[in-house]
Amino acid sequence: MTLYPGQVMKGQNPMPLTPPPNSNGDSNDSWDENKGFCESVGPTKKPQTEPVRRARKVEGGIFFPKPENAVTIAVSSRVLFRTEKEQKVFEEKGVEEYLNYQVQHENEPLAPGPAFPFVKALEAVNSQLRELYPESEELFDIVLVTYNHAHVGVRLINTINHHNLFIERFCMTGGSSPIGYLKAWHTNLYLSADAEKVQEALAEGIAAATMFMPEKQVEVSETQLRVAFDGDAVLFSDESERIFKAHGLDKFFEHERENEHTLLEHGPLKGFLEALGKLQKKFYAKGHRLNCPIRTYLVTARSAASSGIRALKTLRAWGLETDEALFLAGAPKGPMLEKIRPHIYFDDQMFHIEGAAERGTIAAHVPYGIAQMYSHRKSTNSAK
Amino acid sequence: MAVSCHGMFDLDSCNVQPDSCALPKGAAFAFIKAVQTVNQRLLGLSEKNKTLLFEVVLLGKDCEEHIKLNIFDSAKHYGLEIDKFYFCSSDNLIGTLQANHINLFLSPDKDDVYSVLKAGVPAALLYQQAEQQAINRLKVLFSGDLIGLSADSMVCLKDRGFTDVHIQNFKAAKECLREFVVRIGEMKRMFGHEGSPLHTSLMTVWGSRDVCASALKTLRGWGLDVDEAFCLAGATCGPILALLQPHIVWDNGLHNLKGVAPLLSS
After folding, report:
1. A65-211 and A225-381 in the same fold
2. Which of A152, B117, B118, B150 could form a disulfide with A148 if both were Cys (CB 3.0 to 4.6 A apart)?
């Protein structure tokens, strides 16, 4: 069910600057023989009158990693930027008015949205990876995948330029489902504001989460990417959660004790943690263990003395680790997360997400597992 | 708008006997059906739209007599609305197209498309669809890498090893494209955004996002707002094309250039 990053689906040559081409597995493709052409050219240089952008050069050529080699993060326009006003126009006045509005405001850049700090942090990690491994394609690749019509494209590109982001790849599907394209890009993580699309993606085995705007702005690190994960139904499957919901806490503990030596099944975000782990190891290999620019956290309601053991054993058996593991034994997660200040925190329960957002933590909901069937303290209306 | 179509039927794979049943469908088949849908919808909206309709012409290259008969019969058999049939030899292809004021030549054969483009006749590729797609929409894909470059910035392509001749051809191809885009834009405006039978997409393969933005604006300037846009920035186009399944691909002849690839390995 999970996608393994770096899993090469076709036998492609990972070095982009070498001359054409290896043969490609695609026989469907009418541009087959010319694909080598596509790869060996590299992007066109713009004329000199454009403002100077941050150099993304590698050995005299700008290159973008191949999707299957990079850790691909797909973000939708509504989580990367704040589009509340535009959403209102769309809902109140319909598609045509919405498109007109966007075209009229084309040169006004949009404000940063909840995923913006995360994307900035990914870029910071990328620049450090490039310094250490100039030839490598194992980088973060951020792709903008949006349901929007191509009309909005110009405004989005203007906004990306304004904020100086390194997003070169995008996909505007004009209303059709982006799930197929997510798979074509070998997406490791998909972030969207729309819970339905996220659920579709999860059903297809792509790690995905719905992002919400935190209620207050909190400073996050600009040099270290921090990602926090809940345990059950995020990294692990929801099997234990089911026992808890059905039979209560005692049964849960009993079940965990009995099954201490059985590994938990994997959950939707295990693959993403794995991808982060691979990149972390690249830093460790160059002696950056203590000040690694990627830091991962497990924040779980499990208790260290009992049910937590199974979680740790499972992670270890998978060859994964998180830098920090917080076993809260049921205590609220909010204060801990406030201290950690992750760029993104994944949890399957809206209750926790709302609690986190209240304190300014950037939280993302993973609509997976049994917890979705239970109503929450506040309204269940996930962000639009 | 006259569209000349080669590749309607799969001529290679059939053992033809006189009076045998219709030829198996070729790559252009779904395209024709989609075009017919567009025509129907246009007429349905208003009788005045007669001037906007697609007029499809079937072009057969180097066909033997009995094949010609078969083509007529098969076209009738499948209920294809083909206005005219032309048969010519491959040497005379361009002459035939020009003499008959064909606005667009379509073929699954890249070489044909390229040689026709070079001569200044608009031409585009018929995409080999994996399966017969739903035929209620005509899907056109524009390759944006050259659209996004203005005439002046095309000069910078010389750094990449393209010759003056190539650049001239690109400019000619872009002109052809413009005429087509203007007409498609007119047709598209007849329909709204929901349920339109005309679906247009833009894809830039190796241009940066600014090239893509520039292509979007250029197309808009010519009167067409595309539905979907993709900026691949060097990723392979195969998987995306396989999902998109367009009928027609306009690539300005760029990717058809053989012998160019060695020039670009730097």
Report:
1. yes
2. A152
